[in-house]
Write a structure and sequence with these properties.
It comes from Microbacterium laevaniformans. The model has no long low-confidence stretch (mean pLDDT 93). The relative contact order is 0.19. 23% of the residues lie in helices and 49% in strands. With 179 residues, it is of the alpha+beta class.
Length: 179
């Protein structure tokens, strides 16, 4: 049986998300299904320098506390590549000469419509001074970690952001780091 929506209403909306409540009929009968919809797709950037180090940013999340993550953010309606380039410059203060689209994923697909795009950035160079934008973004630190150590950080529970873990998996597959 496929899901059927009988009625839908927006119960909350801001510039980043919309929350809807749906009267549905699904595999288990009738019910209410809440859905969070992102207003724009998100982008995730795995930046890898010539020494095979990955750029991680440290920030304090309201919902989960301290987090090490890959640079990421909303696309604000831009082309995902343009948004990825902007986010890398804002969050890490760097630019990249080579960009590879690694894939598309969905965050929290049981409760959300939140498309995400993952990019690999290589040919890294220091961009404009990012201190002001990093502070505005809530970035506490930028750290370059060897790729193998990043995988150990995931295994040790030091990187817990699911989308960063998935983005790093995309990059690891592309760069053949799991062989």
């Amino acid at each position: 049986m496929t899901w059927q929506t009988r009625a839908s209403r927006t119960v909350y909306e801001n510039r980043w998300i919309r929350v809807e409540e749906n009267d549905v009929v699904g595999p288990h009968g009738e019910g209410i299904y809440g859905v969070v919809e992102m207003q724009h797709p998100a982008v995730f950037v795995v930046a890898v320098d010539d020494d095979d180090r990955v750029c991680l940013v440290s920030l304090e999340r309201y919902t989960t506390g301290h987090s090490w993550e890959v640079p990421a953010g909303g696309s604000d309606g831009e082309d995902p590549l343009v948004a990825a380039q902007r986010e890398l410059a804002e969050e890490a203060g760097i630019t990249a000469a080579r960009w590879t689209a690694l894939g598309r994923m969905n965050a929290l697909n049981g409760i959300a419509r939140a498309p995400e795009f993952v990019f690999l950035a290589q040919g890294i160079s220091r961009g404009a001074d990012a201190d002001a934008s990093q502070h505005e973004e809530g970035i506490d630190a930028v750290r370059w970690v060897p790729f193998g150590n990043v995988l150990r950080m995931i295994a040790a529970g030091e990187i817990t952001d699911g989308e960063s873990v998935a983005a790093l998996a995309y990059a690891g597959i592309h760069l053949d780091r799991f062989a």
